[in-house]
Amino acid sequence: MSSTTTLEGWGRLAVPGRELLSSDLETLTRGARLSRGLGRSYGDSSLPAREDDKIAGTRLADRILAFDPATGVLQVEAGVSLAELNRIFIPRGWFTPVSPGTKYVTAGGMVASDVHGKNHHRDGCFGAHVQKLRVRLASDDLVECSPTESPDLFYATIGGMGLLGHILEVELVMKRIPSAWICMESERVANIDEFLTALDRTAATSPMTMGWIDCLSRGKKIGRGLLMAGDWATVEQAGTAQPKPPTERSLPVQLPNWALNPWSARAFNALYYRKQLRQRIERTVSPEPFFYPLDAILHWNRAYGSRGMTQYQCVIPRAAGAPAVREFLTVLASLGCASPLCVIKDCGPQGKGMLSFPLEGTSIAIDIAVIPEIQRVIDRLNEFVIAAGGRIYMTKDRFTRADHFRAMEPRLDGFLAVRAKYDPARRLRSAQSVRLLGDAA
Amino acid sequence: MKAVVLGGTSGMGREVARTLVERGDAVFLLGRDTAELARSAADLKVHHPRQEATGFTSCDLEHPASFASALDRADEALGGFDTVIVTAGMFASQEALEADIELAQRLVTVNFANTVVFCEHARKRLLARGGGRLVVFSSVAGERGRKPVAIYGASKAGLSTYLEALDHKFSSAGLAVTCVKPGFVRTEMTAGLRPPPFAGEPREVAALVVRAMDRKQPVVYAPRMWALVMLVIRSLPRFIMRRINF
Asked: Domains plus CATH for chain A?
C-alpha cells in the first residue's frame, strides 16, 4: 500500500515520506501520525515530521453518506473532494456554504484548515457550517464531536491542521442556490485606498467579494487592481441551463526558474490590470472561473520552476486601519518579490475554530517563489504583521519561525491545552507542527 | 438498465456503479462486507438523480455457495436484472505470490475458477430471460505471459479466454459479454506501485466501460491507450520478452 518516497505540498518542496491510501479510513488511520487529503496546502502542514511517520491519505474515502434535501444536511467521508460535491450538487441547486479558491480540496482538509472564501464577511469560515465530526484520536479511540458534544475537541479540530485527530467524517449544512450561475461585477481600482473603500462598499451589497492586486505597482498606484463581487444569479437572470463542464488544461512541464522574474511578473501584472477595457463590467458567469480561476490550469504551480513556491497570507486587523495595509504593500514592494498573484479580501469576525485564520480586517495573499532570501522576506513580513496585531494562515505557511508564530497567536496556549488533553504525547504531528509548535521530530 | 454489481464498493466498481445510478439506472450491490455495502448504497442513493435507494446483499468470491442466493436476492429486489457486472477480484504482487503459495492458490481460485462459476450462475439467469449484458473486469495482465505479473496475469488470461468463448457461444442468444481490460488505474489496488505513463483514473475507466456495455463491445481497454500498448506487447518476440521486465 505504500506510495511514493517523497511527499510535497502545493509549493512543491518535497520531503522524504510516503502516504498510505485506502478507502477504509477507520483501519487506515489506526496508528497514523497525520492525515492528508489532496495535498493542496502550500507549505508543510500535510507533510510528515519524520520519514517513517505513517501518513494516511484520505482521498479514496470519498463516499457521501447522507443528504437531506429538506434541511441541506450532508454527511460525507473526509476524502470527498469539493470538485465532486460541486459536480453533484450545483445542478441540484445546492452549494457548499463556503468555498476556498480551489476545488481540489477534501472535506477533511477544509475542516482542518477551516477554509474561508469570498463570502467570509457574510458567512464566516467552513467550520461555522459544520455540525458534527467523526474523529480518530491519537489514542486510536473513535469519537464524535459537535458544538455540544466535546466542544473543546470540535473547535480545536476546526482549523487545527489535523493535530487533534484524524477526521473521518464531516457533517455540514449545504446552502441553497437559485441557479448554477453567478452575476459578477469586476471593477478596476486605481490604488489601495480606493480598494479598501470599494471592498467596504461592495461588502454591504454583495455576498461574495475579493480583489486582485498588482503588488509590483508603487507610488500613487500602489495597490491598484481589480475588485470582483458576485452573487448567485436568479433563474430570471440566468435561466435553468447548466454551465458546461470546465475545460482544464495542464501545465505539462516545469518552467525554468528564470521564467518568472521581476520583468515577466511586471509585464503580466500590467496586462492583467488592463484585461478589462472598461472601468466596470457586469457579467453572468459559471461558478468555475469565479471561484476557481487557477483550477483552469492543472499543475500551475510548475510555473515557479524547480525552486518551488510559497504563499504568504496574513490578515491585518481592521483596527490597524487602511494605513497599515498600505504600509504592508510598501514593505512588500521594497522586498522585491516578483509575484503575479496577490489577492486581497475583507474578512468578517473571527470564528470559533481555536486556530482559525481569519479575523476582522484585511487578508492579503501573495505567491512567492522560493528565492534564496525567502527566510528574510517572510521574517520581515511577519514582523510587520505582528506589530499590526495580525496573523498568518498556517495552511499556506512554510517559513514562519516558532517565536514569530507565538507572538502573533495569543490563542495558542488555549489550543495547546486542548491538544494536551486529547494527545498528551503529541503523537499526531506534521513537519509544520515540529517547526511552529516545537513537536519532537 | 437493472444492474447487479459484484465489487461495487471500491475502486473502479464504485465509479461504474456511480456512473450507472447518475443516469438513472437501478443498481444492486454485491460484496463481502455488509457495513461497506451499506455505506456504498448510501453513497449511490445520493448520486441517484431521484435519490432512489440501492439494495445490497453479501456475496463473497471466495465462497461460491453464496453466489446463487445472492443473485436471487438481487433479481427479486430489481424485479429481474438485465445486466451483471463483476469488478471484484484479488491482486497481489508477484513477489508476494511467489513467497506464499497459499496466497497464490487463493488468488488463482478467486480470479479464475470462482469468477467463472459466478459468471455461469449469472449467464444462466440472463439467458433464461432472453439475454442481457455480462460485463467482467479482467486485465491487460492476461494478454501475455509477463515477468512482473506471472500468476495474476495467468488468472486473468484464463478469465479473458472464458469471456471470449462466452461471447462466441451466446451472443446469438442475446447475451452481450464485455471483457474489460484495464491497464494501470490509480486505485487502492495499485496504491503501492509507481504509476506508468497512461495511468488512468477510475472515473475515466467507468465512463469507457459504461459506453462499451451500451454498445455491446466484446472487449474494452481502459484507458484506451492500453489497446495500443498491448498490441505492441503481444507482437514482441519471445526473446525480447525474456529480456525486458515489463
From this structure: 182-406 (3.30.70.2520)
